[in-house]
Structures are given as structure tokens and as C-alpha cells.
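Aim 2 progress update. The chain analyzed this quarter is reproduced below.
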Amino acid sequence: MNKHIEKAKELRNATPMVHNCAQTIMEVYADDLGINKELANHLGCNFGGGMKCGSVCGAITSGLMILGAKGIDSPAKVNQFIKTISNNHHGLINCADLLKENAKNGGQKKPHCDGMIQEVIELIDQMEKEND
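Predicted C-alpha cells:
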């Protein structure tokens, strides 16, 4: 399995869980980016819960930060990233909307967020391979 996904699962299954979606993705890629885990967590702290106000999903925003840090920043690639995730979730990218839709379908929050994290990691890694 993907090393980034394994690390994300480890962080999200820690007790107590202290990593929001954005922090999880930032920390998973910290070594790749040459930053320490503390800085990665600080960078992601205000993006969980959709910037703490239900806006764009923290997994998505941190995914965009990672892509940018890896030099993947063309408008076409950024739009492809967002559109791919949006298409997988009935056009939704805002945390509040994603969670509302998930709850409406009987889902629980943590498994949903963990799934978003995995989806973003897989897409980052795919886009990075395509960019090589």
C-alpha cells in the first residue's frame, strides 16, 4: 500500500486523534517537502473543518498546498485536481456540504474524512507521477 496512505491512517487512528484532515496530509508529505512535522501541523491547523467554517474541505486545500510545493501549479492541473474530487462527490467540495451529504446517506464523520484524505493522497501521487 501507498506509504503516504499508511502514514495518514496511522495519524488518524492515534488516540487521542489530534490531526485534522489538512494537518494529516501536510504531515504525511513533510519529509518529501523537507519540512519538520511541527511546521507541517502548524501549516495545516487552520484548514481543518473547511478553514474552521465549513468552507473548502481541509483535505482538498492541503492537497493544493502539497501540489504547489511539488511544482504542480498550472491552472489546468489545479482545475483537474479540484474537478476530479468534485466529480467524485456530486459537485461538492465544501466541508459542511460534504459532511451533510455523508450524514444524509447514513455515513459517520471520521470514516468520511479518512476517505477524503485517502482520495486526495492518491490524486496527489497520481498527478506527481504524471508530472515527472
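The longest helix spans residues 109-131. The chain has a mean pLDDT of 96. These observations will guide the mutagenesis experiments scheduled for the next reporting period.
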